[in-house]
Amino acid sequence: MDKKRWKMTISGKVQGVYYRASTEEEARRLGLCGYARNLPDGRVEVIAEGSPEELRQLHQWCQEGPPAAKVTDIEVEEQRANGEFHNFGVRY
User: Fold this and answer.
1) Of these residues, 5, 38, 80, 91, which one is catalytic?
2) Is the pTM of this model over 0.85?
3) 46 by DSSP, 3-state: which?
């Protein structure tokens, strides 16, 4: 499988609404590895590695997020996958 790595930076009302934990659940369901973390400026950063199709599905999910979230923008940067992650988690 050709693994890819995407860095997604999600803007909007995405902190304090269970966004990271919900992203963790969805990413694990899709079989992705990586993490989600809050940024000091109020955005959420998601680093995910997996197949292009799995990454597209996570990106689509991230556009809505959990029910209380209000996503206004997602920046996506494709990076080289390096296999450093063994699962998907939340970073604090």
Assistant:
1) 38
2) yes
3) strand
